[in-house]
Amino acid sequence: MLLIGLAAWLGAQPAFAQAQAMPVDVLHWWTSTSERRAANQLSIYLAANGVQWRDAAIPGGGGMAAVKVLKSRVLMGDPPDVAQLIGTTLTEWADVGLVLPLNAVAARQRWAQNMFPTVMELVSYQGDVIAAPLGIHRINTLLYNRRVFARLGLLPPKTWAEFELVARKLLAQGIKPLAWSDEPWQIATVFESVLLGEAGPALYRELIVQRKSSAWLDPRVERALTRLRWLRSIQGETPREQNWTDAARELLQGSVGMMVMGDWAKGELMAWGASPGKDFGCVVVPGTDNMHLYSIDTLAMLVNVRHREATQEKVAELVSSLPAQLAYNRIKGSVPVHRDADVSSLDSCARDSWDTFADPRSARVPSLAHRMAADESIKDAVAQTLWRYLTDARMEPSEAQRRLAAVIRAPSAER
Ligand code: BGC
């Protein structure tokens, strides 16, 4: 209610002249080395086109803190001009009239023709285009340390049986097989990749997109939960919470052999000077060949008293253009949303991600952990339930399944 009142109040303010020279306030959670550089790349591109970027970065992987800060800024009547709003959080804000429709920009730049249909679906809501798409991340990414693998004569695992073998060999050399963090969003990120591999795209969609409670009792979910617990247990030491960047650092230093994380971790390794052909490699999580578990980054333009609509439209137009996207995604680790992009100059992991996403025969499925499939409260409830299951050794997978079935609400029950 408060949000609806605020939206009405903002809309009723007199229109002020557009101040092109005034910087646009951009709220986001890109604070690691590669994220920072990718955001800088955007701000340089905007500056070259007459738009100044004023940074309002909120640290915290996965955007937990940024989403909270955004909410409180909106409630205080001070929404930023531009915000990294992704997936279902977008529609929540659009519902209360706080997101500027970008239909004119989308029509002018022929987004519907130039961008992937999955991307357009994500940014379209009740007939409006509500955000500017920036890049597509692949969550089902398994990174491995190439030098360690070469030294021990290991090949990147394609199946879980191969993974177990590789893990045993790494352990025998005193190397932790898999980077791990007990942060709930990171647990959820690993889990959804494992789940996709065990369940396959059809059941994954029932679980995550249609959110059928009963499907969560399927034996394939039990297998995924058992595997998740095993993955956490092979560290050889008590798992702890750590930033995803610290986990990536362990991978690069060779104290761990592999890491399951969205390909922003690849961007980070590259920002530290590592190269995919030499220092690390990337394959898909076992069982997820030809599947693309995606998280798509988008920027939304927020309605506010400053009435910066023309500048906001210009931001949307610039960041979604192909040159800006190639420069940004090269650093960020994601891939452009344009279906006519020439990705031949991107790294091999990016090319594979883009090819899979573009191939009509592949399965493209949305990430729950990164807000592509359910609202913030369901996402958090799932992540907390997984965390509880992992940290309470007495909880059986079947009990975790029952709890997950209870926190998953079908989309129709949301409004
Ligand atoms: C975002 C990425 C970001 C990652 C880690 C994801 O939710 O989509 O852009 O790099 O979180 O913070």
Strands, helices and their partners?
Blueprint: H1 2-12, E1 24-28, H2 33-48, E2 53-57, H3 64-75, E3 82-84, H4 88-95, H5 103-108, H6 111-114, H7 117-123, E4 124-125, E5 128-129, E6 132-138, E7 141-145, H8 146-151, H9 160-172, E8 176-178, H10 184-209, H11 219-233, H12 244-253, E9 256-260, H13 264-271, E10 280-284, E11 291-301, H14 309-319, H15 322-332, H16 348-358, E12 363-366, H17 376-391, H18 397-407
Parallel strand pairs: 1-2, 1-3, 8-9, 11-12
Antiparallel strand pairs: 3-11, 4-5, 6-11, 7-9, 7-10
The protein binds beta-D-glucopyranose.
Beta-D-glucopyranose binds at residues 29, 35, 61-63, 86, 137, 264, 295, 297, 370.
Describe this structure in words.
This protein has 18 helices and twelve strands. The chain is α/β, with parallel strands linked by helices. Strands 1, 2, 3, 6, 11 and 12 form a six-stranded mixed β-sheet that branches. Strands 8-9-7-10 form a four-stranded mixed β-sheet. A hairpin with a 2-residue loop joins strand 4 and strand 5. Helix 11 packs across helix 18 and helix 17 packs antiparallel against helix 18. The site of beta-D-glucopyranose has 11 residues, from strand 11.
